[in-house]
Amino acid sequence: MTWLKLVEGYMPMQMISELAICILVFALLNYTLKRAGMGIPTFWAGILVWAFIQVYLKYRIYPPIPFSVRAIYGTVSACGVFMWVSGSEAAWQEFRRPIINVLDAVSPFHKAIRVVSLVVIPLLIGGFAYKSFLPSFEEPIELRTVHPAPPATTKVHGKTFVLQTSQNPYRVNPEGKYDQEFSNAATVVQDMGRLMKDVKDPKYNPWDPNAEGYIKYVREGGEIFFQNCHFCHGDNLNGRGLWAYAFNPIPANFTDAGTIAQLQETFVFWRVSQGGIGLPPEGFPWASVMPPWKEHLTTDEIWKVVMFEYWHTGYYPRTWD
Amino acid sequence: MGRLKFRMARKKILATSGLFAMGSMLLLPIFLALPALAGGGGGSAAGGPPPDVVAAQKAKAEAEGASAEEEKVEVGRDVYYKIEGPVVGGPAPKTEDSETFYPRYNFESRVLLWVANQQHLYYGSFVLAVPIFCMCIEFAGMVSKDKAMAKKYDQLAHDFIKISLTAYSLTAILGGILIFTFLTLYPAFFGYLSSIFRPVMHIYALMFVAESGCLYIYYYGWDKMTHGVMKWIHLSMSVVLNVIGTVLMFLANSWIAFMMSPAGIDEQGRYLGNIWHVLHTALWNPLNVHRILGNMAFGGGVVAAYAAYRFLSSKTDEERAHYDWMGYIAMSLGVAFLIPLPFAGYWLMREVYAYRQQMGITLMGGLLAWLFIIQATMIGILFLTTNYYLWQALGRMTGGERFQRYIKYLVFILVVGLLVFITPHTIVMSPAELKAMGGQQHPVLGNYGVMSAKNGGINAIIMTTVLSFIWYQRGNRVPAVKWARLGNTFMICFFTVAQLNNVWLAVYGYFIPANVRIGLSVPQVAGTLSCLFFMTPLNLAMLKGARQLGPIKWGKISPRSQYALIMLATAFTWMMGLMGYIRSSVRLFWHVNEVMRDNSPWAYTHTIGFAANIISFNVLFFWISILFVFWLGTLGMKSPVTAAAKEPVAGAPVPQPAAGH
C-alpha cells in the first residue's frame, strides 16, 4: 500500500486510526446490509474482522512487526472478537449456530464439512507439531534487555559519580548554574526536520561564532560526536551510521522515543563511559560492542557528547523531581 | 407514630455513628503508620536508643561499677535515615555456600520457600479480606429498610465468614510450615531477621491470638447477637477483627519492606535500637496500601468464583438465583478495590524509583521487564473479564438489550487500550526479525512500549469499565427525572472529554520533559476517577424514581458469565503470584538489599518460563486446596434457599434474593 504512507512520528496514532476507520466502515456496511436483509452472519463477521486485523498488522505496518508481538495482538484481538460475538445471548446463539450445525450434521453439506474437519484438523495439528520438532538452522531468539539496570555509582577517571544525583556540569544557564529548563528551551524543535529554533540567534545556534555557555558546549559535544560516534550512531543520531549494519543488533536509535528520552542523563553518561564491556552481569546477554569511551575521552568530553545527543534529538533527559 | 419516628431517628444515629466508628477504626493502622511519626515520638524515635535500651545499658554500667558517662557506646549510621544511633545488634552474617548457612535437601531450597510463602500469602490474603466483606455486608443488612434484604445480607455475611473460618486454620498451618522452612533451609538469614524484628515478631504472634479470639466470638456469637445493641456489638467485633487483621498484615509487610529497602541499621546490618525505623522503611507504606487493596480484590474474586462454582452446580432455579446474586456482590466488591489498585501500584513504583533507581529500572525496563508485560496482560484480562461479566449481566434484565448492541464499540476501545498497554518495550525476536526491523526500536511499537502510551491505554480501559457499570445500573431502568435529557447529554460529554483528554495527554507526553510527563498521569487519573466518582453518583441520582422496565431475573444469566467470574479469580491468583515473585526477585542476589548478600547456589534470577511454571503450580495448588475448603464449608451448610423457606419473613419475595442492584 504505497499510496498511503505511514508518516514518521505519527505512525502510532495512524495505525489506531486506520484500524478504527476500517472497523467502523465494516460495521456500517454490515448494518446497511442487515437493513437490506443481507447481513453477514455473525460467525463470518467475527472471523473476517479477526483475519483483517492479522493481515493489516502483517502487511500494512512496516518495518515488519516481529512474530511474538503479532501473536500477542492476534490473541488479544481474538479475545475481543469473542467478547463481541458472545456479548449478548442472541449474538452468541447466532455465532455458534454454524458450528452446532456442523457438529450435528443437520444437512449432507454440514455432514461433509464435519467429515472433512475431522480429518483436516488433526492433520493440521500433527503438521504443526511435526514442524515444531524439525531441526532449525535459524539463530535462536535472544531475550535482550534494552535498558540495563545501572549501578548506584560509576567510576570514571578516578572519580565516582552517583547516578541518581549527579548532574551534567555543562548544562548551565548564563549564570553558570545547572539549569535544565534553560537548556530545554534551547534544544532543536522536536520534529522530523529537527530544526534550530532560530538559526540566527547565538542562543539557539551552536555554530554561531558568538555562541556562549550551554550552546557552545553543545557544539563541542557535536564535534566529539562527529569525530567518534557518528560512524555507528549515524549523522542523524538514528542508529544508521556507516558501520551500523556490521553489527547485530545495530546501534541504538537516539531519535526513538524509547531510548535516551526515557533515561536520566547520568544513565547515558554511565553507558557511554563504560561501554558494552562494562555492563553488569545480571542482564546478560548484552550484545553491545560499544567501546568503553572512558578509555578514549575525558570525563568532560563524555558529558558534552551526551548533552549534544539530547540537544540534537530534541529530547529532554529524565529527571525525578 | 412519634415513637416510630424516634426509633427511626435512633436507628439513623446509630447507623451513622457505627459507620463513623468503623471508618475511624479501619483508618487507625494508617494513622499509626504516618511518616510524621518516623522522626517524632520522643528521643528514641529521633535516632536515640529507646528507653528500655538506655535503662539496660545504665544498669549494666552500674553493675560493672562504672558511671554511665564513662560507658562508651559504639555508634552507627542509619543506611536510610542517615542519622546516628547506638549499635545494639550484631552485623548481618556473611554467608557462604555451605550446609552451615544453607542446609538443603536434594532440591532447590528457594523454590520450596517460594511455594510455602505463596500458599501462606494466598490464604492470609483471603482470611484478611473476607472479614472486611462480612463487615460491609452485615452493615448493609443492618441499615437496610427492607427486612427480607436485611436477612439475605446477614445470611450472606454469615456464609462468607463460615468459609473464612476453615481457611483461617489452614492459614495458621501454612504459617507454621513457612517458619519451619525458613528455620531449616535459611537459618542464618532467618536468625538475622528475627534478631532485628524480635519484639515485632512477638507482637505479631500476640495479635494473631487476638485475631483468633475475635474471629471465634464473631462467628459463634452470630446467632446469639441478632438484635438491637447486641447486633451493633457484634458488628463492632468485626471492626476490631479487621483492625487487628490489618495491623497483622502491616507488621508482616514490614519484614519484606525491610528486605527490599532496609532502614534502622548501619551498613554492616547492625541494629541501631530504633524499632520504628526498622518498621518504617521507604517502601512500607506503599506496600501496605497496595497489599490491602490487592487482598480485597483477591478476596472478592475468590468468593465470586465460589459463587460461580455453586451456581454452575445448582440443581434448582432458586439456588441459581441465590448464587448469581452472591457472585454479583462479591464481584462488585472485588472490582471496587481493583479500580484503585493500578494507582496504588503506580505509587509503589514511584517510591521504588525514588529509593533506588536501578531497582526501578530492573523492574520495569530491565531484567524483569517482561514479567511486567505479563502483569499488564493479567490486569487487562481482569478488566476485560469484568466488562464481559457486566455485559452478560445485562441479559438478566428486561431492557438490558438496549445497551448490548453497543458492546462492539466498547470492545474496540478495550482491545486498543489493552494492545497499547501490553506492548513490550523489549521485544522478543529472532536475529532475522531484528535485521528486518532495522534495529531494536520499532517506530510504532517503540511508542506503545513506553509509559506515556501505557498510561493512556489503562485509563481508557478503566473509563470504559466505569461506563459498562453505568449501563449495568441502568439495565432495567429508564431515568424519569425532569432533567434526564440534560443529565444524559452531560454524561456523554463528560466521558467523551475524559477519553479525548486521556488520549491527548498520552500523545502529548512524547513532546515534553520526562518529569513533566510523569506529572501528566495526574490529570489522566483525575479524568478517570472523575468518571467514577462523579458519573456513578450522577447516574444514581438520575435513577431516583426511575421507570422500571421489569425485574432483575436473578439466576437467568448465561453460564459464560460464571466462567468469567472463575477466570477473574484465576487471573487475580496468578497475578498475585507473579507480582510477589517480581517484588522478591528485584533484590537480585541480596537477602537484605545491599546489606546481606545471598550466597546460596540459588542466588540467580530464574528464567521467565520456569518462574511462570512455579507460579502456575502455586495457583493450581491453591485452587485445589480452596475447593476442598469450599467443600468442607458446604458440609455443615444448609441450602440458602431451604433455610429461607424454613424461616419465612413477612413480605419477602421468596425466590428472589434481591430486588435491587
Provide an overview of this structure.
The complex is a heterodimer of chains A (321) and B (661). Chain A has helices at residues 11-35, 42-60, 67-85, 89-104, 108-133, 180-185, 213-228, 230-233, 265-274, 299-313, and strands at 153-156, 159-162. Chain A has 321 residues and is mostly helical. Chain A folds into two domains: 11-131, no CATH class; 153-313, Orthogonal Bundle (Cytochrome Bc1 Complex, Chain D, domain 2). The mean pLDDT of chain A is 89. Chain B is globular. Chain B starts with a helix and ends in a 15-residue tail after the last helix. The chains are: A mainly alpha (321), B mainly alpha (661).
Number of helices in the DSSP assignment of chain B? 25
Task: Indicate the percent of residues in helices of chain A.
Answer: 40-55%
Largest interface: A-B, 78 and 78 residues
The pLDDT mean of chain B sits at: 85
In the CATH hierarchy, the third-tier topology of the largest domain in chain A is known as Cytochrome Bc1 Complex, Chain D, domain 2
Strand fraction of chain A equals: under 5%
Distance between the termini of chain A: 45 Å
- Main β sheet profile of chain A: 2 strands, antiparallel
First-to-last CA distance of chain B: 31 Å
What is the N-to-C succession of helices and strands of chain A?
A: HHHHHEEHHHHH
User: How would you sum up the global shape of chain A?
Assistant: elongated
Quaternary structure of the protein? heterodimer
User: Could you name the ranges of chain A where pLDDT drops below 50 across 5 or more consecutive residues?
Assistant: none
Q: Report the sheet-strand fraction of chain B.
A: under 5%
Class derived from helix and strand content of chain B: mainly alpha
